[in-house]
Design goal:
The protein has ten helices and eight strands. The longest helix has 24 residues, at 85-108. It is an alpha/beta fold. Strands 2-1-3-8-7-4-5-6 form an eight-stranded parallel beta sheet, with helices on both faces. The protein has one domain (3-299): Histone deacetylase domain (Arginase, Chain A, 3-Layer(aba) Sandwich), CATH 3.40.800.20. Helix 1 (24-35) crosses helix 10, helix 8 (204-222) packs parallel to helix 9 (248-264) and helix 9 (248-264) packs parallel to helix 10 (281-299). Belongs to the histone deacetylase family. Residues 18-280 form the Histone deacetylase domain. It comes from Algoriphagus boseongensis.
Length: 300
């Protein structure tokens, strides 16, 4: 059965006019149930992740600053979120959701966190709507518990996974692969194991051809036994922040490609959502929903 991490706390309210679309965390489950892709039985409510698994990835001093709400004004500004204890608890819950979804992937081949994809969080700081890095934490959890030996992180959000790249800069057990807009945030890029920087306006044909070629090469060379997939949908042409030109159909083909390679290679895959900032929220929901439709089609 497809297992999906979701909690009401994922929908932590933000000040009116805030550009991060928290409402998608409510609307996406509603849409998936309405169309019959999943039922309520597919969802599980995560539990907060223990501190030791967070500080296995992030510096303990940074973790304590979050818990104590002791970030400076500039540090708060960099995250993009108003700081609160509710926000920190939300982040810790999301970390638990990704780890638990990965454990379900070990059993069923695929597991999904309806939140997560927080790839801009560094070992010692947060950026770009990311305070803790669930991709990094989940990879380290799998390695530490000997549930994987080689973890591939496939990051297809339009923004480079700079925090993830920093976390695993010197760790050969994790391969970081990021396809992103060349001229988009972050303006100062980190160095992933494989970075593919796309020009403004890049559409389905260019994106999918580069993805297919790169995935084949990485899978052969690195031979991962677990995949973490950041499936942000801000590569859509309609996205306010994306600057690329993908269609809903292109997003569907992208997700199907990643999950098909995972299934054919018998490699468990944990998927997390990442960004999506189209003017019409229904475009964000429909694009995200492709992943769940594909997962049900391929695995169940």
């Amino acid at each position: 059965m497809l297992k999906i991490s979701w909690s009401p706390l994922y929908c932590h309210p933000l000040p009116e006019g805030h550009r991060f679309p928290m409402e998608k965390y409510n609307l996406l489950p509603e849409q998936l149930i309405y169309e019959g892709t999943v039922t309520q039985e597919n969802f599980f409510e995560p539990i907060p992740l223990e501190k030791k698994w967070i500080t296995n990835t992030h510096q303990e001093s940074y973790y304590q600053k979050l818990i104590d709400l002791n970030l400076s004004k500039s540090e708060i500004r960099a995250t993009g979120f108003p700081l609160s204890s509710e926000l920190i608890q939300r982040e810790i819950l999301i970390m638990g959701g990704s780890v638990q979804a990965a454990l379900f992937a070990k059993d069923f081949g695929v597991g999904i966190n309806i939140a997560g994809g927080t790839h801009h969080a560094f070992s010692d700081r947060g950026e770009g709507f990311c305070l803790l890095n669930d991709l990094g934490i989940t990879a380290n959890y799998l390695l530490e518990n000997k549930l994987a030996k080689r973890v591939l992180i496939v990051d297809l959000d339009v923004h480079q996974g700079n925090g993830t790249a920093e976390l695993f800069r010197e760790n050969p057990a994790v391969f970081t692969f990021s396809m992103h807009g060349e001229k988009n945030y972050p303006h100062r890029k980190e160095v992933s194991d494989l970075d593919i920087a796309l020009p403004d306006g890049a559409g389905d044909e260019l994106f999918l051809s580069l993805l297919e070629k790169s995935l084949e090469e990485v899978l052969i060379q690195f031979q991962p036994d677990f995949i973490l997939y950041q499936s942000g949908v801000d590569a859509l042409k309609t996205d306010k922040l994306g600057r690329l030109g993908m269609s809903i159909s292109g997003i569907q083909q992208r997700d199907k490609m990643v999950l098909t390679y995972s299934k054919q290679g018998d490699i468990p895959v944990m998927c997390c959502m990442g960004g999506g900032y189209s003017t019409r929220i229904r475009d964000v929901i429909d694009a995200h929903a492709q992943l769940y439709r594909v997962a049900q089609e391929l695995y169940f």
